[in-house]
Recover the amino acids of this structure.
């Protein structure tokens, strides 16, 4: 058996996770990009992306996902998403007001490229929510390790 | 005249500051600089609004340029930001205290690690409070109340010791209940009026016969915002939460947070939307009298300096509620002036308790003694704050309490006036306990080598102390017309309708 199987759950779970985690990630991106057309959006999509990483951590044990996306980076990406959201809102002030939808406000309804800055803000929200949620998860498992070591 | 276009900056600048601090946390000095500059620019912006706005002017700003739909649909669809006299009055207080606290924290927060987290949360809390003040939309108000509350839960737990975490958990549970009740109130009110805009709601409420549902909404809002304001039956979280936070945050929580989320929101909802019905007047006066009594009497028994000050906050919120409940122009003037005074002297006293803790390492009054010889600035500013709190004549707190008591007498509430005078005497007793045990008497041996606090902390203490001494000057007619009268006028003009 390879070293990979020392930690985490059984081979079945690992195999299924390996197959599905990319799809989950892709589905999250789909939800984000279609947020202005179908139900969903930045928040829901961000949660799904965070779940993909959490899934990796659960199946492969403690630090599998943290190698790809460290706790420090979650903080940075979260702040970046928030700054991006606020910048878009503030850019509107140049065109008519705070949160003004300044990118082709008349775009074609139903098309992927429509709704002006709303898709961009959805992306910003997804960065904030996804990184934030995964950061919370990483913090919680650090606390749990700390607790179990004390016992 | 002033351009309405800069109104959103009251929320945008603190938010930007908070997020940029999180982004550049590694660079040394960035959190301090951003924290001080963001809150300082907010203060300058509020002064700008105070100077440039006409007294009766009301600035309305449509977020996202949704204003054009108002004519098409015949009702307000987007979120509106509204700036009027009361808003400016509150903005000035909140941002001034925040600025002073930010300057103070530069030195004080070196006691803790992770200073950037402190400034990040601090600015988020400031953004939430400014948002509560400038919004004209009831649901938006709820959202900003949540932003400010969540940031304050985290800040109360900032020390991450057992006591702090327990206090924060208690605060979070009580705050969560309060938020739920407020949200339910908003839902019921929306189902009845079909709009979330407060000005629109006020029009609808003043027109027709009110359904019995309104009394449920009264109860929900009174309990929800009462919990945030820590009025007496709902005060249990405050004596734990306020002392557990770092001293600058205690100053923010006691000084401005409970007033913005509690008193201001109650005034806004019950005066502007419901037209201040008679029942609310009686309830506010009763709760105010209860808060005054319970807060002051329990404060007498405290030996922890910060816990004593926290109970004192409950008592002083009672005075403000009493003034609002009386509902005459004089009563409201007294309430708002006392709100201003309380935010100044209570932040000062909490910052002083932090300075004592910084220098002497304790906040137990029994362990202190004779500190005035070692900490002249701290003890002097504490004395100014204490005298203002106790209501000794030339200090600012005397005038506001006097106005509230006179208003109670004029409105024929003799018993309430007598009760307020009595509790004012109890106030003198408990605050003298602080000055006597902490600063007078013989200096203990363990304090021989302590030093006065760093310069930035001293500057903020002295600034607040000066306002405590000269704050009474705000009552001279010119200053009153510019600062207090517009705020009183807003509340008076909202009255009249009602159930």
């Amino acid at each position: 058996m390879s070293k990979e199987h020392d930690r985490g759950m059984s081979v079945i779970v690992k195999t299924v996770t390996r197959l599905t985690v990319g799809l989950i990630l892709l589905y999250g991106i789909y939800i984000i990009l279609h947020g202005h057309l179908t139900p969903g959006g930045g928040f829901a999509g961000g949660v799904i992306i965070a779940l993909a990483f959490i899934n990796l951590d659960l199946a492969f044990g403690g630090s599998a996902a943290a190698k790809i996306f460290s706790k420090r980076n979650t903080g940075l990406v979260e702040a970046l998403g928030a700054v991006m959201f606020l910048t878009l809102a503030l850019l509107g002030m140049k065109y008519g007001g705070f949160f003004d939808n300044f990118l082709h406000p008349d775009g074609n309804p139903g098309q992927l490229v429509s709704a002006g800055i709303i898709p961009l803000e959805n992306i910003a929200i997804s960065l904030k929510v996804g990184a934030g949620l995964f950061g919370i998860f990483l913090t919680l498992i650090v606390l749990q390790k700390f607790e179990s070591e004390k016992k | 005249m002033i351009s309405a276009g800069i109104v959103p900056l009251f929320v945008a600048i603190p938010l930007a500051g908070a997020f940029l601090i999180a982004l550049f946390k590694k660079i040394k000095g960035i959190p301090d600089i951003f924290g001080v500059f963001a809150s300082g620019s907010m203060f300058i912006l509020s002064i700008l609004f105070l100077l440039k706005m006409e007294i009766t002017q009301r600035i309305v700003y449509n977020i996202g340029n949704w204003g054009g739909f108002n004519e098409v649909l015949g009702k307000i669809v987007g979120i509106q930001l509204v700036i009027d006299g009361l808003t400016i009055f509150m903005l000035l207080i909140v941002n001034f205290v925040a600025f002073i606290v930010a300057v103070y924290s530069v030195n004080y927060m070196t006691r803790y690690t992770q200073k950037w987290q402190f400034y990040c949360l601090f600015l988020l809390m400031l953004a939430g409070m400014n948002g509560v003040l400038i919004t004209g939309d009831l649901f938006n108000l709820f959202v900003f109340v949540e932003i400010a509350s969540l940031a304050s839960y985290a800040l109360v737990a900032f020390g991450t010791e057992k006591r702090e975490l327990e206090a924060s958990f208690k605060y979070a549970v009580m705050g969560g209940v309060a938020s739920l009740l407020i949200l339910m109130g908003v839902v019921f009110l929306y189902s009845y009026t079909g709009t979330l805009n407060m000005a629109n709601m006020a029009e609808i409420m003043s027109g027709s016969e009110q359904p019995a549902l309104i009394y449920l909404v009264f109860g929900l809002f009174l309990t929800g915002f009462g919990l945030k304001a820590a009025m007496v039956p709902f005060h249990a979280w405050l004596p734990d939460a306020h002392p557990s936070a770092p001293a600058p945050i205690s100053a923010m929580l006691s000084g401005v947070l409970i007033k913005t989320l509690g008193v201001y929101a109650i005034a806004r909802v019950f005066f502007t939307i419901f037209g201040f019905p008679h029942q609310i007047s009686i309830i506010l006066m009763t709760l105010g009298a209860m808060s005054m009594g319970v807060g002051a009497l329990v404060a007498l028994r405290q030996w922890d300096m910060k816990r004593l000050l926290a109970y004192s906050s409950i008592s002083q919120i009672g005075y403000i509620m009493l003034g609002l409940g009386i509902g005459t122009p004089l009563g409201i003037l007294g309430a708002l002036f006392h709100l201003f005074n309380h935010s100044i002297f209570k932040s000062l006293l909490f910052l002083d308790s932090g300075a004592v803790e910084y220098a002497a390492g304790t906040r137990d009054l029994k362990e202190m003694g004779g500190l005035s010889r070692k900490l002249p600035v701290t003890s002097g500013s504490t004395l100014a704050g204490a005298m203002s709190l106790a209501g000794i004549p030339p200090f600012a707190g005397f005038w506001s309490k006097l106005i509230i008591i006179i208003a109670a007498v004029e409105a024929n509430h003799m018993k309430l006036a007598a009760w307020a005078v009595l509790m004012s005497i109890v106030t003198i007793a408990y605050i003298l306990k602080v000055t006597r045990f902490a600063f007078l008497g013989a200096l203990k041996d363990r304090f021989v080598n302590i030093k006065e606090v760093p310069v930035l902390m001293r500057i903020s203490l002295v600034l607040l102390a000066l306002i405590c001494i000269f704050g009474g000057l705000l009552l001279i007619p010119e200053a009153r017309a510019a600062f207090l009268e517009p705020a009183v006028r807003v509340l008076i003009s909202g009255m009249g309708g009602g159930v």
